User: Which sequence fits this backbone?
Protein backbone atom coordinates (compact mmCIF):
# COMPACT_ATOMS: atom_id res chain seq x y z
CA UNK A 1 0.00 0.00 0.00
CA UNK A 2 1.45 3.35 -1.06
CA UNK A 3 1.31 6.64 0.82
CA UNK A 4 -1.63 7.82 -1.32
CA UNK A 5 -3.69 4.86 -0.11
CA UNK A 6 -3.32 6.04 3.49
CA UNK A 7 -5.06 9.38 2.87
CA UNK A 8 -8.60 8.01 3.27
CA UNK A 9 -7.84 6.52 6.70
CA UNK A 10 -5.93 9.58 7.83
CA UNK A 11 -8.86 11.94 7.21
CA UNK A 12 -11.26 9.59 8.98
CA UNK A 13 -8.95 9.21 12.00
CA UNK A 14 -8.46 12.97 12.28
CA UNK A 15 -11.85 14.14 10.98
CA UNK A 16 -12.66 16.26 14.04
CA UNK A 17 -9.24 17.93 14.01
CA UNK A 18 -9.57 18.62 10.29
CA UNK A 19 -12.99 20.15 10.84
CA UNK A 20 -11.73 22.41 13.64
CA UNK A 21 -8.84 23.69 11.56
CA UNK A 22 -10.63 23.89 8.22
CA UNK A 23 -13.67 25.81 9.36
CA UNK A 24 -11.61 28.80 10.48
CA UNK A 25 -10.18 29.62 7.06
CA UNK A 26 -11.94 30.79 3.91
CA UNK A 27 -9.23 32.06 1.58
CA UNK A 28 -11.14 30.60 -1.35
CA UNK A 29 -14.11 32.97 -1.53
CA UNK A 30 -12.94 34.77 -4.68
CA UNK A 31 -12.62 31.46 -6.55
CA UNK A 32 -15.93 30.16 -5.20
CA UNK A 33 -17.55 33.40 -6.32
CA UNK A 34 -16.00 33.04 -9.77
CA UNK A 35 -17.12 29.40 -10.05
CA UNK A 36 -20.64 29.98 -8.74
CA UNK A 37 -21.00 33.19 -10.74
CA UNK A 38 -21.10 31.07 -13.90
CA UNK A 39 -24.02 29.00 -12.57
CA UNK A 40 -27.73 29.75 -12.36
CA UNK A 41 -29.42 29.68 -8.97
CA UNK A 42 -30.59 26.15 -8.23
CA UNK A 43 -27.85 24.55 -10.32
CA UNK A 44 -26.73 21.08 -9.22
CA UNK A 45 -23.12 21.08 -8.01
CA UNK A 46 -20.93 18.08 -7.19
CA UNK A 47 -18.35 18.64 -4.43
CA UNK A 48 -15.73 15.88 -4.53
CA UNK A 49 -13.87 15.60 -1.23
CA UNK A 50 -16.36 17.88 0.50
CA UNK A 51 -14.89 17.37 3.99
CA UNK A 52 -17.23 18.69 6.69
CA UNK A 53 -19.02 20.94 4.20
CA UNK A 54 -17.68 24.16 5.68
CA UNK A 55 -16.95 26.63 4.37
CA UNK A 56 -17.08 25.79 0.63
CA UNK A 57 -20.25 23.70 0.25
CA UNK A 58 -22.00 25.89 2.82
CA UNK A 59 -21.21 28.94 0.68
CA UNK A 60 -22.64 27.25 -2.42
CA UNK A 61 -25.80 26.26 -0.55
CA UNK A 62 -26.19 29.83 0.66
CA UNK A 63 -26.05 30.93 -2.97
CA UNK A 64 -28.96 28.63 -3.80
CA UNK A 65 -27.04 25.76 -5.37
CA UNK A 66 -28.15 22.15 -4.95
CA UNK A 67 -25.02 20.49 -3.58
CA UNK A 68 -24.15 16.81 -3.69
CA UNK A 69 -21.09 16.20 -1.53
CA UNK A 70 -18.86 13.14 -1.73
CA UNK A 71 -16.21 12.25 0.83
CA UNK A 72 -14.51 9.02 1.88
CA UNK A 73 -14.79 9.87 5.60
CA UNK A 74 -18.05 8.76 7.27
CA UNK A 75 -17.37 11.13 10.19
CA UNK A 76 -17.01 14.15 7.90
CA UNK A 77 -20.15 13.19 5.98
CA UNK A 78 -22.02 12.88 9.29
CA UNK A 79 -20.95 16.45 10.11
CA UNK A 80 -22.28 17.61 6.73
CA UNK A 81 -25.62 15.92 7.35
CA UNK A 82 -25.91 17.46 10.82
CA UNK A 83 -25.00 21.01 9.80
CA UNK A 84 -26.22 21.25 6.23
CA UNK A 85 -29.25 18.96 5.91
CA UNK A 86 -30.33 20.67 2.69
CA UNK A 87 -27.38 19.04 0.88
CA UNK A 88 -27.10 15.48 -0.42
CA UNK A 89 -24.12 13.90 1.36
CA UNK A 90 -22.64 10.52 0.38
CA UNK A 91 -19.73 8.43 1.63
CA UNK A 92 -17.81 7.40 -1.49
CA UNK A 93 -14.38 7.32 -3.11
CA UNK A 94 -14.15 9.81 -5.97
CA UNK A 95 -12.01 7.33 -7.92
CA UNK A 96 -15.07 5.07 -8.19
CA UNK A 97 -17.54 7.84 -9.05
CA UNK A 98 -20.63 6.61 -10.89
CA UNK A 99 -23.70 8.69 -10.04
CA UNK A 100 -25.57 8.22 -13.34
CA UNK A 101 -26.38 11.95 -13.53
CA UNK A 102 -24.74 15.18 -14.56
CA UNK A 103 -24.05 18.45 -12.77
CA UNK A 104 -23.71 22.09 -13.81
CA UNK A 105 -20.69 22.48 -11.53
CA UNK A 106 -18.03 20.05 -10.30
CA UNK A 107 -15.48 20.99 -7.65
CA UNK A 108 -12.53 19.01 -6.26
CA UNK A 109 -10.88 21.52 -3.94
CA UNK A 110 -7.84 20.33 -1.97
CA UNK A 111 -8.92 16.71 -2.50
CA UNK A 112 -8.02 15.67 -6.05
CA UNK A 113 -4.33 16.37 -5.38
CA UNK A 114 -4.19 13.54 -2.82
CA UNK A 115 -4.58 11.02 -5.67
CA UNK A 116 -1.65 9.36 -7.42
CA UNK A 117 -0.76 10.71 -10.87
CA UNK A 118 -2.42 7.74 -12.60
CA UNK A 119 -5.55 8.09 -10.46
CA UNK A 120 -5.66 11.79 -11.35
CA UNK A 121 -5.45 10.98 -15.05
CA UNK A 122 -8.31 8.51 -14.66
CA UNK A 123 -10.49 11.19 -13.04
CA UNK A 124 -10.84 13.33 -16.16
CA UNK A 125 -13.20 10.93 -17.97
CA UNK A 126 -15.20 10.74 -14.71
CA UNK A 127 -15.37 14.54 -14.56
CA UNK A 128 -16.60 14.56 -18.16
CA UNK A 129 -19.19 11.82 -17.54
CA UNK A 130 -20.72 13.85 -14.69
CA UNK A 131 -20.54 17.25 -16.42
CA UNK A 132 -23.58 18.72 -18.14
CA UNK A 133 -23.07 20.83 -21.26
CA UNK A 134 -21.31 24.10 -20.30
CA UNK A 135 -20.65 22.77 -16.78
CA UNK A 136 -17.94 24.43 -14.73
CA UNK A 137 -15.08 22.34 -13.29
CA UNK A 138 -12.77 23.68 -10.59
CA UNK A 139 -9.93 21.80 -8.89
CA UNK A 140 -6.62 22.43 -7.18
CA UNK A 141 -3.30 20.81 -8.05
CA UNK A 142 0.37 21.34 -7.36
CA UNK A 143 2.23 24.03 -9.32
CA UNK A 144 4.42 21.52 -11.17
CA UNK A 145 4.84 17.79 -11.76
CA UNK A 146 5.92 15.76 -8.74
CA UNK A 147 5.03 14.29 -5.36
CA UNK A 148 5.09 16.29 -2.15
CA UNK A 149 4.70 14.89 1.34
CA UNK A 150 3.13 17.04 3.98
CA UNK A 151 1.99 16.14 7.49
CA UNK A 152 -1.32 16.31 9.31
CA UNK A 153 -1.68 15.53 12.99
CA UNK A 154 1.82 14.05 12.94
CA UNK A 155 1.12 11.65 10.05
CA UNK A 156 2.52 11.85 6.51
CA UNK A 157 0.04 13.30 3.99
CA UNK A 158 0.53 12.56 0.30
CA UNK A 159 0.08 15.10 -2.50
CA UNK A 160 0.87 14.71 -6.20
CA UNK A 161 0.63 16.82 -9.31
CA UNK A 162 0.92 16.41 -13.03
CA UNK A 163 2.53 19.13 -15.11
CA UNK A 164 0.39 22.12 -16.12
CA UNK A 165 0.82 21.04 -19.74
CA UNK A 166 -0.60 17.59 -18.99
CA UNK A 167 -3.57 19.02 -17.10
CA UNK A 168 -4.35 21.22 -20.10
CA UNK A 169 -4.06 18.21 -22.40
CA UNK A 170 -6.32 16.03 -20.24
CA UNK A 171 -8.90 18.79 -19.93
CA UNK A 172 -8.93 19.29 -23.69
CA UNK A 173 -9.12 15.58 -24.45
CA UNK A 174 -12.15 15.29 -22.17
CA UNK A 175 -14.04 18.24 -23.59
CA UNK A 176 -13.10 21.07 -21.23
CA UNK A 177 -11.68 24.49 -22.06
CA UNK A 178 -9.51 26.26 -19.47
CA UNK A 179 -11.09 29.50 -18.28
CA UNK A 180 -8.51 30.39 -15.64
CA UNK A 181 -5.37 28.91 -14.09
CA UNK A 182 -3.31 30.51 -11.34
CA UNK A 183 -0.26 28.80 -9.83
CA UNK A 184 0.26 29.35 -6.10
CA UNK A 185 -2.31 32.15 -5.92
CA UNK A 186 -1.13 34.50 -3.13
CA UNK A 187 -4.73 35.67 -2.62
CA UNK A 188 -5.84 32.10 -1.94
CA UNK A 189 -3.36 30.72 0.56
CA UNK A 190 -0.94 29.69 -2.20
CA UNK A 191 -3.39 27.31 -3.90
CA UNK A 192 -2.87 26.35 -7.53
CA UNK A 193 -6.32 26.58 -9.10
CA UNK A 194 -7.86 25.40 -12.36
CA UNK A 195 -11.23 26.61 -13.63
CA UNK A 196 -12.59 25.04 -16.80
CA UNK A 197 -15.84 24.75 -18.74
CA UNK A 198 -17.32 21.74 -20.56
CA UNK A 199 -17.78 22.56 -24.22
Assistant:
Amino acid sequence: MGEADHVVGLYERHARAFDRLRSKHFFERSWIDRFAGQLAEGSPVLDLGCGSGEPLAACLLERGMKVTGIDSSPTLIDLCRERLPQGDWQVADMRELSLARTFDGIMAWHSFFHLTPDAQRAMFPLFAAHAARRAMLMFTSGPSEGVAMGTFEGEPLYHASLSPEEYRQLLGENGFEVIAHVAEDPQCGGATVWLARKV
Remarks:
- The chain has a mean pLDDT of 88.
